Amino acid sequence: MIVGALRIVLSLPGNDSLKGKRKVVRSIVDRLRHRYNAAVAEVGDLDAHRSAVLGLTVVSNDASHVSAMLDTLTSAIAGASHALIVDRKMEILHLGEGEHLASHEGRFESSWDDDEE
């Protein structure tokens, strides 16, 4: 399994309100999620009017496909008329057959208990 992660910092020039920022960011996020089936979220600069940080991830079984998808997502964001890309960081993780992100031995116990407050 190949996981690609992308962090993009956007400048939103001329934007003077969080409401205006939300409109621009929501438009970008929704378009990327629906058109490219990527996981996308605003992950930073939440209270800044003129900047936003987006986190994007894609999963595939082919590293070149992951790289191409991240480049395509970057191009789609660059095409947004109200946002400028000022920074881009990309990482591609190769997770093999026998590797696990976390392993736990023994019985799984839930920390969710409706009786406890």
Instruction: Summarize the amount of helix as a percent range.
Output: 25-40%
CATH C-level class is Alpha Beta
- Low-pLDDT stretches are 102-113
State the shape: elongated
CATH topology assignment: Alpha-Beta Plaits
* Major sheet: arrangement of strands: 2-3-1-4
Distance between the termini: 39 Å
Query: Main β-sheet: number of strands, strand sense, barrel status?
Result: 4 strands, antiparallel
Number of strands: 4
Structural class: alpha+beta
Q: What is the assembly state of the chains in this entry?
A: single chain
State the CATH superfamily name. TT1725-like
Question: Could you give a short description of this structure?
Answer:
The protein has 117 residues and is an alpha+beta fold.
